[in-house]
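I am still learning, so can you show me any protein sequence you like together with the matching structure tokens, please?
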Amino acid sequence: MSSHSHQNMHSRWSTAGLLITLGIIYGDIGTSPLYVMKSIIGEHNISAELILGGLSCIFWTLTLQTTLKYVIIVLNADNHGEGGIFSLYSLVKRTKIQWLIVPAIIGGSLLLAEGIITPPISVSSAVEGLLIFKPDIPTIPIVIGILFFLFTIQQFGAKIVTKFFSPVMLTWFSMLGILGILQITNNFEVLKAINPYYAFKLLTSDASGHGFFILGAVFLCTTGAESLYSDMGHCGRKNIRISWIFVKAMLLLNYFGQGAFLMQHDGQSLASLNANNPNPFYLIMADWFQPIGIVVATLAAIIASQALISGSFTLINEAMRLNFWPKVKINYPTDVKGQLYIPSINWLLFVGCVGIILYFKESKYMEHAYGLSIILGMMMTTTLLNFYLIMKRVKWYFIAPLIALYTTIEVSFLWANITKFMDGGYVTIVIAIFLICVMSTWYLAKKISKNYTKIVKIDDYKKVLAELSVDLSIPKYATHLVYMTNSNRSDEIEEKVMYSILQKRPKRADIYWFIHVSILSEPYKKEYRVTEIVKDDIYRVDFYLGFREATKINLMFKEVIKDMMKKGEVDITSRYESLSKNHIIGDFKFVLSEKFLSNDSDVTFFEKIVMNAYFIMKKFSLSEEKGFGLDSSSVKVEQFPLVLHAPEKIEMKRIEAH
């Protein structure tokens, strides 16, 4: 997709586009009314100060954090139409500031950790509505059953399901707004909460037993903002901005409606209003409507989970292209651009979700694990955003107050959420630390490996390759011999490639091909360049692929060959006399190299840990041939020792025999 068409997608909006946006983008943030007010009140008694202060905090959080930061400012930081922390990192990478990789890896890991906690908390909060009717109903098997169904259908692609998303989410948001309006009309006093004074008063007072730390519960109202940015490429900026006006209005009406209802029960606790399920979200519904409300809430929670699962697939795909994650199998279940399915990640997420459900059991305990990872992720985005604004030459007097404002807001949220660490916040942090270790190890190992790969000039080998090609004393290895190379320059090649051709076992071929794949900082691009090194003997093909494109080298290389034949640049007919007469195409043989850590390596303790962990992970990752999409019948994998810090030459003295 060209940058011009991306521009059009972001500047255009349509009714269909707005509906699709409702269905895809707002699942996470849209299901927050299921648990935010319940979390704010907790075990405390209801008071006007607590309700007005809590609502004021929600109103200003959604205004400053979600609307101003994400919908207005961050959505401008698109990488050829795509959003998300890795897209943002790909943009700021151009500043050549090395350490920016740290917030990118931390942010990406925290977003994945969010993908493990959001489905359980959303679906559990919805299903627990059934306790109103049957207090002893076991909700855990129901929640696990719903999630198992959701993760199972991923392999068929979200195309079938997404058709139902938009109408369900439109119904859900309309229901939120109507339920809120019905309650607000009974108590207009609740609208005073728009005044930030009430938020300030609550945060600086300990009279309610909450004070500043209520922000830990308030923060749950903005949890979907990060994934809203990640999904920008699916819907377009303008569709998100316009639909957010409706979504924000409906969310606020529902929060204020819950507040209006609760203010009529001053001095009481939530448990005294309904012992079975003390959730104000369900308490504001008429008795006859509650079963309908539970069904719609459960469907909305499923959609929220679906959005995060799809987002996790996209995130891992980008991480692989940026060398942050081991190669894993990717399926493309539909022809929808950007839609993919990663089996290993799908079932890893499912196991994580089941673990969360079995560990916490109820949604009220999951809330503790929720906010901490998300606020840390938002802080990583703010860090990268700062450098993006500098890169865009935005005036310092605009950047400074903006970054100061969000640093203050986010540090406050972090401080309030740290109190949840021992209550369960550590769970998502432990998951995120594990993911950070995987990403960092893979990236560092690739870097170490690259630093110790010896590169040679192709010019030094042109003559010998041309002679080898016609040396009949050596049996022919293949008509076309293809090597994958990591060398960025077209006049250079790894020494191990030449060693493989000339020394390991001399490999005579009619034509030698060197293929290099460059992953670009933009998401969608498929370009290639052919360099003729020696006519009819040595060629190099460079593929330039966007970081969201599938690496199908087999198919792409065939297209390149077809194009070159059409232009008369190469003759791929077999040079065996009998086959040549009958115009039979020659065989293609790919040679890939797999490294192992040489015993001759004189490595530091740190390098040893990184490289050993890398080789363990490599055993579980996709093989090189599958990673490049090659046909395994025409692939030869050779083992090469990776020598780090080659030991010094050993000085030896020969003594003559007597």
Notes: Strands lie at 455-457, 476-484, 492-494, 508-519, 526-534, 538-545, 588-597, 635-642.
